[in-house]
Amino acid sequence: MKRWKTLAKALLVLALVLGLLTWLVFRLPGFGGVAEGARLARMQASPQFHNGRFENTPPYVSDMSLRRELHDYLGEQVREPGFPVPVVPMTAAQLTTPAAPGLRAWWLGHASALVEIDGVRILTDPVFSQRTSPVQFVGPKRMHPVPLPLAQWKNIDAVVISHDHFDHLDMDTVKQLAQGGTHFFVGLGIGAHLERWNVPAAQIHEMDWWEQASFKGVTIHCTPARHYSGRTSMNNSTLWASWMVKGPTHSMYYSGDTGYAGHFKAIREKLGAPELALVKVGAYGDTWMDIHMNPESAITAVQDLGATTLLPVHWATFNLAYHAWAEPVVRTLAAAKAQGVQVVTPRAGEKFEFGQPFQNLPWYLPAK
């Protein structure tokens, strides 16, 4: 009996130590902040907030199982490229002058893109660190360099953030951009993370779905998505979103992470069809479809939006799912061809100018 009591005490001590360590880890700056006071009250007043958390409509019901996830994880797909991913280097000089009129985009890897629209320079979900993690010594690592190193990113007018997962919201990138006066447009609650990272309050714009903000001659619309959130767990403590940016002449849409649902048609009905759509095509699985579209669903979403051109994002940079590395773009191009959707597949750092000819190269396939 004494031996069992000793063992029980040891297990209790171990549990307490592990609990304390977990608490300390979650206090690291990379995990961000917690909404309180007026910020929390505004979140609670949102039509998307129910029972202490944000919810999709209808709510997301997971059909994941440990057995199925383990089966998919142990699959034989080649999830990383067996060759150096081609990157077109960018220079800091490209950002020293104001953005020119027109509409152009540089895909930077994963969900990060630089878009210049009617003279305004905007980044989508910029993640320029080496790992998608609250710390940089562990976590999914980049499979190709950023076209421009983090320290050289300056003169960015605005950033739109779709949600607070680590592959979409990166503390070091936010801090670098904030020093240069960049403004951040984020879903409800995400401002708490930015405030903890010392982003000035005047540069933070928290928005609910269907709200809009005028900024330097363009209008930034916070639009719905179907996903989930949480910096430390899947607790939906912040609001996920997609974004439409409309200028006097041009328009662009960024999907963020989302499952396929009726919100794409609703966005077109309320705001019109965008010219350029940056839509996620990678990181999907059979049990993820309610919150992560596959390529065929992404093409349907683009059709619902009525977008002129699709630039696929959310693939090729981090190993985050169980499909083959190049599968997302191969399936996207096949579905687009079948449905008559125009797609551009630039290399990371390669410029696409809307309205100008663009040649898609099969850079994502091994050289023959």
UniProtKB/TrEMBL annotation:
<dbReference type="GO" id="GO:0005737">
    <property type="term" value="C:cytoplasm"/>
</dbReference>
<feature type="domain" description="Metallo-beta-lactamase">
    <location>
        <begin position="121"/>
        <end position="315"/>
    </location>
</feature>
<dbReference type="GO" id="GO:0070290">
    <property type="term" value="F:N-acylphosphatidylethanolamine-specific phospholipase D activity"/>
</dbReference>
<dbReference type="GO" id="GO:0008270">
    <property type="term" value="F:zinc ion binding"/>
</dbReference>
<protein>
    <recommendedName>
        <fullName>Metallo-beta-lactamase domain-containing protein</fullName>
    </recommendedName>
</protein>
<dbReference type="InterPro" id="IPR024884">
    <property type="entry name" value="NAPE-PLD"/>
</dbReference>
<dbReference type="InterPro" id="IPR036866">
    <property type="entry name" value="RibonucZ/Hydroxyglut_hydro"/>
</dbReference>
<dbReference type="Pfam" id="PF12706">
    <property type="entry name" value="Lactamase_B_2"/>
</dbReference>
<dbReference type="InterPro" id="IPR001279">
    <property type="entry name" value="Metallo-B-lactamas"/>
</dbReference>
